[in-house]
Amino acid sequence: MDGIQKFETIKGKSIPFYLLVFVLTVLALIGILATYLLAKEGLYLTGMTTRVPWGLQIILAVFYVGLSAGSLVISSLYAIFGKIEYKPFARVTVFLSFLFLVAALLSIMSDWGRPLKIFEPFYHFNPVSMFSINPFLYITYMIICIFYLLALFTEKEKLVKIIAPVAVIWAIGVHSGTGAIFGFSPRELYCSPLLPPSFIAAALSSGTGFMVIMILILFGWTKRPLNNELVVRLGRLLAIFIMIVLYFIFVENTYRYYLTQSREAARYFLFCGSHSLIFWGGLIVLGSIIPAIILFSKKAKSIPWIVFSSALVVFGVLCERYIIVIPGQTHPPDLFPNMKIVSFLVEEGITTYSIGFYEVLQALGVVGIIGLIFVLGLRVLKFLPTDAKGD
User: Fold this and answer.
1) How far, in Å, CA of 130 to CA of 149, rounded?
2) pLDDT digits (tens, 9 = 90+) for 134-154
3) What predicted TM-score, i.e. pTM, was given to this entire model?
4) Class of 7-331+352-385 in CATH
5) CA distance linking residue 44 with residue 30, whole number of Å
6) Which residues contact 366 (CB under 8 A, 6 or more apart)?
7) What is the 3-state secondary structure (H, E, C) of 243-267?
8) Separation CA 35–CA 359 (nearest Å)
């Protein structure tokens, strides 16, 4: 490939296309209606409680931020590392990176109960609060993605090579900031300086896995030629990311279990409650070990097996986001070490959380809104190449 790549819009005149737009529109409207009802009636309709104020929307928000940061991996292969064969994927990966951050912000807004309060963090900035810092990281990152896309669309190679590193560095900052919300919190199952880099590692694996699936869907759906070797190489890269994720998980939980003061919390995290099943079954076995075995074996050259492994990795990281957000709330915090609490206004001991019906509707609504923007974007703007034959 000589670096000259033609891009075009999708035709978008088929019945399946119109049906997809209709389904996404319905999902978007359902999510908007659910959010309106929760704002009107109250968050008691969800599965959240006083002890568990972060539910499904926060889990998905963290998941989307990771997908946003991880999606830039493929564009950086071209823009930073000079792998010209990955140029056909650059535009769509940056577009998805932007949309995933929008999805994260929509999820956070729907979780608030009062979505119109979106501008409050900007009115009351606190430089020592990660809750206050992160909105600025998110908005700035979205602006960078827009300029990144403009540089890609105008084929300004020098500008692309300047903006791409900035976008990647800022993506690392965005996800580090998200991880710091939990890692800098003084609670046994949150507090960890390893959480920000662990978040980044999981973002790289989930973002790469998702983009492998999305590239194959887009090129298959629009009948564009695709060099399978490009996907095989991404599969090898994904295998490395999986091992990095496992390393961080091992070190973090070994350290937590090693310390006497956090051993009880570590035992609860690893072996008690339904979340432990999600940890061992969803994240470790299905989301890490099985795809790692596949991607380090001869099956790593098989596209169906790569897709299967990628799907497992994405599912595993979603499980990882769940076990980061929820157990830290359901486990009782040690608010006053070495002191006895004689009176407490909220429920003591271990509590539970179940995903509510309205939360699911909100989540589907976010998928509908982002999916609709993505599909219409492909229809209006030239995001997809005529082919990706590689070198």
Assistant:
1) 28
2) 888 889 999 999 999 999 999
3) 0.90
4) mainly alpha
5) 19
6) 31, 60, 103, 106, 107, 110
7) HHHHHHHHHHHHHHHHCHHHHHHHH
8) 9
